[in-house]
């Protein structure tokens, strides 16, 4: 056997170097290179012909009569929706998210619901003691669910234990960064350990047909910690997002071999765990008795689901010639600057001596340019202190020329707005009308600002 070569793997991006360096040559992170047990290269493949000596594998026709395993519905509709209609037996799913966002809580609830419906569910925690997990289950009101718990970090121990009984329908590993495989050297959490542990667990899941869910930690820039390869090894990658200071959480598929990536699941973190939110619009709209200037409502789209969000703008006039502040929460600040420039150049509305603050309510993050018109309307309404008429939703993309451009899925967005009691929509021209909602369309941004200013 040839001697394994020393190599160094960047813990941030997974790139390999032959010498240790203070900075990764690929991703430029500092102090991320760690010595890694490299692959042992045997000369076997070189000496022998690979076409002989192996075992034959069974080749199955696409039209095989054998029934395909059915998706398992967990009973948590928002979770099932995000993963494409239920867990696929034998599949591996990776779920990432900031610490404390609720990954453990969500998966404990999923495991409990499956177990309550008679499916075997095992929850292995490498981070908490079994009693801590039980305590959490009690708090969630799931103390009676027949989930089997283990506190373990050795992949060999876990697989040995699982090998003894019938395989569970669901195996949750919380988290993959705490797992340790003795097939390979290195501390838990290093790239090679994460990869080796995940490989063993995924192989077990595929062999036994159980659905595997791995929890993955997220680095400060939002990627799942450890190598990108982890994302290639699994079938589905989910992100669990939200602001920790706000209640709502969104479960979103980033990659899905068994379904689309355009559906989301919406939850709210309550005192008794995560509650499903079947009607997310209600979460982001504040109850307003009267019309307030600077506030508009935009019908956003999450995958194929419309979500109504409230935009709030505040302007403060400065007396002196000081540089005014511009601040945006939940909206891109360069897009805010662009809209301010278009309002000035095309509509003659100047914010030059005004501080501008823009906030998307509920901690929601908007990146859809279809919200341009709603943002512009909020800004002008704030500046002029003229409220937008109640019951109005606004949508449309604004071009640098001041032209209002059409947006995708207008009908779907308007339908949701009508459902929630909105009566009026300000849209780009040629918008498809929707039942129960009166549509006013605008070709130019200046037409809309004239309307707000009562010109
Ligand atoms: P947790 O699932 O431990 O997060 P993660 O596994 O992603 O790190 O969630 C922890 C947070 O959720 C914690 O700040 C407390 C909060 N929480 C509730 O608000 N209600 C609950 O019922 C539970 C169990 C947790
Ligand atoms: Mg956790």
Automatic annotation (TrEMBL):
GO terms for cellular component: cytosol. It comes from Sphingomicrobium lutaoense. The gene is radA. The middle region has homology to RecA with ATPase motifs including the RadA KNRFG motif, while the C-terminus is homologous to Lon protease. ATP binds at residues 97-104. GO terms for biological process: recombinational repair. A motif (RadA KNRFG motif) lies at residues 255-259. Belongs to the RecA family. RadA subfamily. This is DNA repair protein RadA. The keyword Cytoplasm does not apply.
């Amino acid at each position: 056997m040839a001697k394994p070569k020393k190599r160094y793997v960047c813990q941030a991006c997974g790139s390999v170097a032959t010498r240790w360096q203070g900075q990764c040559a690929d991703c430029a992170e500092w102090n991320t290179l760690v010595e890694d047990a490299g692959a042992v290269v045997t000369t076997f493949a070189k000496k022998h012909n690979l076409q002989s000596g192996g075992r034959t594998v069974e080749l199955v026709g696409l039209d095989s009569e054998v029934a395909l395993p059915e998706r398992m519905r967990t009973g948590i509709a928002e979770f099932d929706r995000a993963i494409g209609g239920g867990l696929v037996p034998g599949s591996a799913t990776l779920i990432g998210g900031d610490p404390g966002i609720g990954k453990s809580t969500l998966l404990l609830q999923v495991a409990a619901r499956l177990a309550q419906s008679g499916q075997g569910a095992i929850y292995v925690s490498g981070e908490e003691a079994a009693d801590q997990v039980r305590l959490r289950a009690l708090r969630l009101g799931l103390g009676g669910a027949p989930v089997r718990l283990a506190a373990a970090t050795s992949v060999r121990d876990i697989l040995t234990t699982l090998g003894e009984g019938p395989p569970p329908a669901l195996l949750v590993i919380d988290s993959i960064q705490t797992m340790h495989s003795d097939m390979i050297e290195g501390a838990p959490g290093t790239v090679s350990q994460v990869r080796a542990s995940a490989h063993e667990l995924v192989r077990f899941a595929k062999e036994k047909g159980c659905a595997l869910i791995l929890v993955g930690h997220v680095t400060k820039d939002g990627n799942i910690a450890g190598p990108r390869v982890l994302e290639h090894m699994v079938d589905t990658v989910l992100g669990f997002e939200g602001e920790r200071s706000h209640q709502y959480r969104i479960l979103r598929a980033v990659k899905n071999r068994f379904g689309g990536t355009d559906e989301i699941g919406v939850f709210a973190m309550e005192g008794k765990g995560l509650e499903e939110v079947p009607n997310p619009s209600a979460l982001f709209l504040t109850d307003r008795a009267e019309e307030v200037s600077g506030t508009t409502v935009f019908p956003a789209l999450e995958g194929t689901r419309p979500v109504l969000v409230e935009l709030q703008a505040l302007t403060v006039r400065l007396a002196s010639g000081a540089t005014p502040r511009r601040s945006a929460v939940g909206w891109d600040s360069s897009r805010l600057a662009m809209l301010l420039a278009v309002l000035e150049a095309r509509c003659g509305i100047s914010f030059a001596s005004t501080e501008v603050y823009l906030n998307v309510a509920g901690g929601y993050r908007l990146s859809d340019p279809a919200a341009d018109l709603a943002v512009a309307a909020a800004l002008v309404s704030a500046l002029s202190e003229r409220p937008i008429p109640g019951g109005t939703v606004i949508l449309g993309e604004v071009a640098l020329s001041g032209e209002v451009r059409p947006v995708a899925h207008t009908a779907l967005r308007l339908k949701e707005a009508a459902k929630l009691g909105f009566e009026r929509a300000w849209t780009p021209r040629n918008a498809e009308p929707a039942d129960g909602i009166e549509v006013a369309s605008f070709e130019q941004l200046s037409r809309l600002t004239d309307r707000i200013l009562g010109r």
